[in-house]
């Protein structure tokens, strides 16, 4: 199975969290932080203002050797932008409730407004069991954040707003190029995800020529955190070319 590039969502702690630790038993799992989210590139990329900038960054700074690509939420949007630009660079694509593609009308929201919701609301909408939430960092959450992590959480939100505020959480040009993603693709959603409704992920999968859609019951926006064993089993099978 070789190597997996996993692009993280907003508000998720750095590193191979949840099921990513399990996948690392079989794969070389790379989970880079996005420029603006606490990296050596933050100062030189402070003028970047689109997810296309992030996609181009990863395409020009990561290995040319074909490998698996995955992304969750905000990271799923980046993965989609990369896959339409250079599908030959990747052997497969896993998307976990990605933002990035607007499927409803101009006045109908596709996604919850994660930039305006407070941490309690994001957890209530993003977890099937909010009391089990973990591995998230937002301004004011957890309550006992040290000052340095609190500042980091605010800086992460500022970076997210710069990339995703306008147009809100989508690229209006992305949908027209989705047909170029012909690599094996798995779209995963949680049945209780109220940040990105599972119907959006299912409709997105229908627009991807080779995509399969899987919905995990009693799971929210972060299945790799909330159901790590099940997520690991499904993704591992998919990457091996087996039916998940």
TrEMBL record:
* Gene3D superfamilies per record: alpha/beta hydrolase
Q: Which residues cross the membrane?
A: none
> Which N-terminal stretch is annotated as signal sequence?
none
* UniProt GO molecular function: hydrolase activity
Asked whether the UniProt record includes Hydrolase among its keywords, one would answer: yes
What is one GO cellular-component annotation here?
A: membrane
**Residue span(s) of domain AB hydrolase-1:** 16-232
Which domain of life does the protein's organism represent?
Answer: Bacteria
In terms of InterPro entries, this protein maps to:
AB_hydrolase_1, AB_hydrolase_fold, AB_hydrolase_sf
Pfam name, any one: Abhydrolase_6
> Keywords of this protein's UniProt record, alphabetized?
Hydrolase
Q: What is this protein called?
A: Alpha/beta hydrolase
Give the originating organism.
Answer: Micromonospora craniellae
């Amino acid at each position: 199975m070789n190597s997996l590039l996993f692009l993280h969502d907003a508000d998720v702690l750095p590193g191979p969290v949840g099921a990513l630790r399990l996948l690392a038993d079989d794969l070389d799992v790379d989970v880079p932080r996005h420029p603006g989210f606490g990296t050596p590139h933050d100062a030189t990329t402070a003028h970047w203002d689109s997810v296309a900038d992030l996609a181009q960054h990863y395409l020009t700074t990561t290995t040319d050797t074909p490998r698996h690509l995955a992304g969750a939420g905000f990271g799923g949007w980046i993965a989609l932008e990369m896959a339409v630009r250079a599908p030959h660079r990747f052997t497969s694509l896993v998307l976990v409730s990605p933002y990035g593609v607007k499927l409803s009308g101009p006045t109908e929201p596709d996604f919850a407004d994660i930039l305006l919701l407070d941490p309690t609301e994001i957890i209530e909408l993003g977890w099937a069991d909010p009391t089990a939430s973990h591995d998230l960092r937002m301004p004011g959450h957890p309550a006992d954040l040290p000052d340095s992590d609190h500042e980091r959480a605010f800086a992460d939100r500022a970076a997210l707003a710069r990339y995703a505020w306008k147009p809100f959480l989508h690229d209006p040009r992305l949908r027209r190029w989705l047909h170029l993603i012909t690599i094996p693709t798995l779209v995963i959603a949680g049945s209780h995800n109220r940040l990105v409704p599972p119907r959006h992920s299912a409709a997105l999968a229908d627009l991807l020529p080779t995509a399969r859609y899987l919905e995990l019951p009693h799971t929210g926006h972060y299945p790799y955190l909330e159901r790590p064993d099940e997520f690991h089993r499904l993704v591992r099978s998919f990457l091996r070319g087996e039916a998940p």
